[in-house]
Amino acid sequence: MNVKKFGGSSLADAGKIKQTVEIVKQNKDTSLCLVLSAMKGVTNTLVEAAQWAESGDKKYQNNIEKIRKKHLDCVNDLFIDPKPEGIEYTIESMFVELNEILHGVELVRECSAKTMDLIMSFGERLNCYQVTAYLNHIGINARYIDSRDIIKTDSAHGKGNVDFKKTYERIQHNLIDIESSIPVICGFIASDDSDRTTTLGRNGSDYTASIIGAALNADRVEIWTDVDGVLTADPRVVKNAFVIPQLSIEEAMELSFFGAEVIHPYTLIPTTDKNIPVYIKNTLNPSAEGTVITSNFTKKDRIITGIASIDDLSLINIEGGGMMGMPGMASQIFMSLSDADVNIIMITQASSEHSISILCRSEETDAAVKMLNKNLKSAIHNRRIQNIQIVDQLVIIAVIGENMKGQAGLTGKLFSAVGDANINILAIAQGSSERNISFVIQQKDRDSALIAVHKKFIG
């Protein structure tokens, strides 16, 4: 059993779809499931259309016409007349439905998270339908599977939490007889217990493939994208970054969390439970070995495996002499951030307890500070907390590797390399697993830091 997921860049137009199908044709010895994303750019165009409609601007109609033309042009390029019966009618019917939803958004001037999930679902549904039709057209038996029928989540719209028990039962019940026809499954989308459309978070098609693979006890899950694998650093910054042939599950999770965009952070959860290897492959270069992520870790000949970063962050520094020895102060701070729905990326606290520093995305800073001032009003009034300071335009750099464990002097060498590049470090954190050292610097110093650390430890 092989589950192959193809992203939007692999399905950007008719030419790319044909190229992807050639890869599918090579899969002759195993059963196969396909998980597909929307065509490149479609999801962003749908989101923009929803935002225009919510503001009452009829520009949303231009967005929909752009997507409609993209799909109809693709159909014209894929199929030589006569086209499969009803294909254009079905696509046009989906656009009629989409226009009605967006017109409703325009009338009420509101696009809830629930409605946004429904609007975004059209990208995957349209693409999977046309690819399924094309596979059948060239003699490969395939069937369209709307993943809303098989993947069940709670009602947390925008980032649904999967009910694995219900989902696995539905997948195993619906995806039978795989040998006779290839299931073509919509990535990214799901549904709650009331059958309302939900999504798994942006770039969630990787996660869909992992869930399918785990439910069917697949031998492998392949994520096909537009790069040769997971690289040692961002190649747009570090010109001599190279593909990492093999990653441990823990290394891959760390790299995905810290901005390595090749794989969705949740992808490895289901496959880890079933010990299924995940391969990162390049649709544009299918002969490349790619990266394999597996629990059977092979020791590397270098200390650091890779470097990743997250941009556009802010540091919230909460300071006060009255915080020392005050039980529950940290709890109040974290509860305030939870109430503001703020995701904490890193936490540091001096042993003196005089200050706590919290790193979060800059877009969440205002909500965080507002809730902290509200919930800590008494402590601020009594001067236990003297200052809540914000430092913007920051980036976190994460240095990751299994071989970092027990390496005496590694931290000194790392910060020496950063210091030699004349870069000031604002905060530092290291997990007890010793496979990750993270440090916060100013955004303007990001490229210099990545280059300096890569040169020092990776080459």
What's this entry about, in short?
Helix content is 39%, strand content 20%. By secondary structure, it is of the alpha/beta class.
Structural notes for this entry:
This protein has 14 helices and 16 strands. The protein folds into two domains: 2-294, Carbamate kinase; 306-457, VC0802-like (2-Layer Sandwich). Helix 2 (42-54) runs antiparallel to helix 3, helix 2 runs antiparallel to helix 5 (113-137) and helix 3 runs antiparallel to helix 4 (87-108). The strands form three sheets. It has an eight-stranded mixed β-sheet, with helices on both faces. Strands 12-13-11-14-16-15 form a six-stranded antiparallel β-sheet. A hairpin with a 5-residue loop joins strand 15 and strand 16 (436-442). The protein is 39% helix and 20% strand. The model has no long low-confidence stretch (mean pLDDT 91). The chain has 459 residues and is α/β, with parallel strands linked by helices. The chain starts with a strand and ends with a helix. The protein has helices spanning 14-25, 42-54, 60-78, 87-108, 113-137, 164-174, 205-215, 249-257, 268-273, 329-339, 365-375, 377-381, 410-420, 446-457; strands spanning 2-6, 32-36, 142-145, 182-186, 189-191, 197-199, 220-225, 246-248, 278-282, 291-294, 306-319, 346-349, 355-361, 387-400, 427-430, 436-442.
CATH architecture annotation of the largest domain: 3-Layer(aba) Sandwich
Structural class: alpha/beta
Neighbour order of strands in the largest sheet: 3-4-2-1-7-9-10-8
Strand content: 15-25%
Which fold does the CATH topology of the largest domain refer to? Answer: Carbamate kinase
Rg on CA atoms, Å: 24 Å
- Main beta-sheet strand count, sense and barrel state: 8 strands, mixed
Q: How do the SSEs run, as a string of H and E?
A: EHEHHHHEHEEEHEEHHEEEHEEHHEHEEH
Q: What is the first-to-last residue Cα distance?
A: 38 Å
CATH superfamily of the largest domain: Acetylglutamate kinase-like
Query: How many β-strands, per DSSP?
Result: 16
Residue-averaged pLDDT: 91
* Portion of residues within helices: 25-40%
- The helix count comes to 14
User: What CATH first level of the largest domain would be assigned?
Assistant: Alpha Beta
